[in-house]
Write a structure and sequence with these properties.
148 residues
Amino acid sequence: MIKRRGNKYIIFFCLYQIISTIICILAKQIIGGYGVFELAGALMGNIIFTEGSILFVFLGVLMYSTKGNKKSLATAYTIFCLIFFVLTAINNFSIEGLFYENYQWMMIGTLPFMYLYNGKKGKGYKYLFYLFYPIHIVALFWIGNLCF
């Protein structure tokens, strides 16, 4: 009975993704402009037109399935990073492109922090990060515009 109910939700999710994909494409055709796919996809929860696309949804499932074993997490995460690097570098590989265009390969640098995580809640600097995140985005924006 539980399996049957789970299948119903999976089918509903897939139908919703198909419908929201069609709506995103129609929104792009009707409205036009830059970022319509991303905005409509984010508002509708579409896994194709959101940042990172379905690859990062797969990464989330991969990390969840290996959460109990740090070695399997490290192995799976490293393989994912290598595959992502190859897929992004295969079309246009250059040293400059590695740092300015296809920089997502640097996510392998988070692996030591994943190893250090002990499964316990930290000290609770939640509100500090609510301030830090938008401030650092604005600061990086201004630095990027002033220096480059």
